[in-house]
Design goal:
By secondary structure, the chain is of the alpha/beta class. It has 3 domains: 184 residues, FAD/NAD(P)-binding domain (3-Layer(bba) Sandwich), CATH 3.50.50; 122 residues, FAD/NAD(P)-binding domain (3-Layer(bba) Sandwich), CATH 3.50.50.60; 108 residues, FAD/NAD-linked reductase, C-terminal dimerisation domain (Enolase-like, domain 1, 2-Layer Sandwich). It is 23% helix and 29% strand. The strands form 7 sheets. The protein has a 5-stranded parallel beta sheet with strand order 3-2-1-7-18. Strand 11, helix 6 and strand 12 form a beta-alpha-beta unit. The termini are far apart. The relative contact order is 0.12. It holds the Pfam family Pyr_redox_dim.
């Protein structure tokens, strides 16, 4: 059987390796638009800061390893332009502009997502960047020379916050613009205030509720124009979100779901026979919302890719869904969340209550140096957990994973008290912060 995979990163190569490890006698071809496979995109901001020594450290396996060790025909710099699902043929171009066509028996679309660039005037100027790939971070690092001291970041999500910290760490002055009223919109407004305070404490200039209209400059960007003013800058990073890379599927009739991502079932099957999809180009089933969602993260991409690969060789296994867990470092804070925020619960018309407490990572008498703010949202009638948010220092990661596990298994707020969690003064109080919050429930 001839398997073709479009996309050579997390989802695509996870699928390819499952096919290799669990079957024999198949042909596997991977078409990758870039020149690098299987690397950690989430580590890119930390190359700029120096926390990761080199972009090479982010690469798990290069194309040669996949070809020589695993027998996977990885074709880099191959851009797919069209899929003919009636005749099972893929069309595209290589880096020389030469056209190619390739037949398949089963196809996996794992083409990921691309940064969004709104149609702002002047976006073609030099010095305006987005961040998604290793070549992107290399270009940004090459541009952060000593004479370019001021950076403007547009967008206050994951990439915007992580890159703000990285730019500050190498001595740049950072301005952050977001059209919304707060940074980190995946958090509720009260939790977002803690993020704003941390940004300002570290010298990040915030412009919230401000919409970008364009850029000015003579070949190279010199200023950013918004609906409230004009700001001089040496470099711009646009980080306003991503969109699924699915334009080559436009004539197939494949069903699309949230955010124009390819809709898949639990087996990563699309609406077209023998075509699968996984990762940032596909939907994910949300276990709390009880419907498909679009939350493009590396954790989901790897899991969905693995599931897709197994199902492509008829090893039936289902993807159990997500609960919306994520975490990021922002200067001295850890920002962590899982499940639904207050606003999401309202959007889903779910009646809820909330609890917010201030606690510490360790026992209070042992150390008060690692405070955390913990918020839990739960169903007003049933007490079922709906979501949680934690902002703090040490221990925030541990607690969010406890809560994510509880959400996955549909536990109630009362059942949190029954959990047998580790305790010793350097690590916890007798009642863990998660349980401290639970005990305050009505």
């Amino acid at each position: 059987m001839d398997f073709v995979i479009i996309g050579g990163d997390a989802a695509g190569m996870s699928a390819a390796m499952q096919i290799v490890r669990n079957s024999k006698g198949h042909s596997i071809t991977v078409l990758e638009q870039g020149g690098i496979t299987s690397y950690g995109q989430c580590g890119l901001p930390y190359v700029l800061s120096g926390d990761v020594g080199s972009t090479e450290d982010l690469i798990a396996r290069d194309p040669e390893t996949f070809r020589e060790k695993y027998g996977i025909d990885v074709r880099t710099h191959h851009t797919v332009t069209e899929v003919d699902c009636d005749h099972k043929v893929i069309y595209g171009k290589d880096d020389q502009g030469e056209g190619f066509e390739l037949s398949y028996d089963r196809l996996l679309v794992a083409s990921g997502a691309a940064p969004v660039m709104p149609p702002w005037e002047g976006q073609e100027l030099e010095g305006i960047y987005s961040l998604k790939t290793i070549p992107d971070i290399k270009e940004i690092m090459a541009a952060t020379t000593s004479d370019k001291q001021h950076v403007t970041i547009i967008g206050g999500g994951y990439i915007g916050l992580e890159m703000a910290e990285s730019f500050v760490s190498i001595g740049k002055k950072v301005r952050l613009i977001d059209r919304g009223p707060q940074l980190a919109k995946i958090f509720d407004e009260d939790m977002g205030e803690l993020v704003h305070e941390e940004a300002e404490r570290n010298g990040v200039e915030l412009h919230l509720g401000e919409s970008v209209e364009g850029f000015k400059g003579d070949q190279h960007v010199q200023s950013v124009i918004t609906d409230k003013g004009e700001y001089q800058t040496d470099l711009v990073l646009v980080a306003v979100g991503v969109a699924p890379n699915t334009t080559f599927m436009k004539n197939t009739g494949v069903y699309k779901g949230v955010n124009d991502a390819i809709a898949v079932n639990a087996f990563m099957e699309t609406s077209i026979l023998d075509i699968y999809a996984a990762g940032d180009c596909a939907t994910q089933y949300h276990r709390i919302k009880k419907k498909d969602d679009y939350i493009p993260l590396g954790t989901h991409a790897n899991k969905q890719g693995q599931i897709a690969g197994l199902n492509m060789i008829d090893h039936r296994r289902s993807f159990r869904g997500i609960v919306g867990t994520s975490i990021l470092k922002f200067f001295d804070l850890t920002l962590a969340r899982t499940g639904l925020s207050e606003q999401e619960a309202k959007n889903e018309k779910i009646p809820f209550k909330k609890i917010t407490i201030e606690s510490t990572h360790a026992a209070g008498y042992y150390s008060k140096e690692d405070p955390m703010t913990l918020k839990i949202v739960y169903h007003e009638q049933t007490g079922q957990l709906l979501g949680a948010q934690i902002i703090g220092g040490l221990g925030a990661d541990k607690r969010i994973d406890v809560l994510a596990t509880a959400l996955f298994h549909e536990m109630s707020i009362d059942e949190l008290e029954d959990l047998d969690l580790a305790y010793a003064p350097p690590y916890n109080s007798v009642w863990d912060p998660v349980q401290q919050a639970a005990r305050k429930a009505d």
